[in-house]
Design a protein that fits this description.
Length: about 260
Amino acid sequence: MKSLIKSCALDFLRLISPHLNNQSSILMYHSIGNNPVFFTVRPETFEAQMKYLIESKFNLVKLSELIRKLKSNENIANHVVVTFDDGYEDNFLTAFPVLKKYNIPATIFIPTGLIGKTNTTSAGEKLPIMTNEMMKEMMMSPLVEFMPHGVTHNELTSLGREKIKSELADSQQFLGSFGGNVSVVAYPRGKYNKDIVSLATEYYQAGVTVEEGLVSPKNNLYLLPRNSIDSSTTFNQFKAKVSGAIGLYQKIKKIRFS
Ligand SMILES: [Zn+2]
């Protein structure tokens, strides 16, 4: 019922605000495949969504590029960023060919201690994470960048200060050893608090959450919202998440519950 109300609200808000205007949208994917996990998007759906982004002429950039523009006060109008969390093997096998076909950049957040292993979802399902070799092959492409998602994927809010520091620093150091600027963190399982954000500022230029909404030039760089795309996302909802609708929806929600 709640999702139906949200769906209708987004449809209506998209009529009022069909464009991103001076804002940008960071999309969050996980697995792309045919497994039954809730967050998994079917390959044909993913391709249709990517095709829509290209046909709608969004300014598609990697997350590090969006951060660079935000920090230097450059225009971020109509920008869309495609991100993946956890670095599942299917990001390499299934999503990467689609990204290359449409020339779409992407940012992958990977828990560096789980490379070549499996991740257990909140519902207990196990999905394989890509190997070092897959990662290296993707890194050769100018389209893909890897950013840390902690070492163990444990919720940072459940750890002590020293352990949080090592999750932030060790994952950054590992990815840094491949070269490039490892500048953004995705808080594992979307969990953070004031102390974690303050620690993140010591290592990173920005951080992304799992709260929905749009990025505007005045956003806190360590609490950048992302719009989740999963198996329940209809095509209309997808369109709403790259329009002003999702920003308006979040604003209305905040007023209602504050
Ligand atoms: Zn994750």
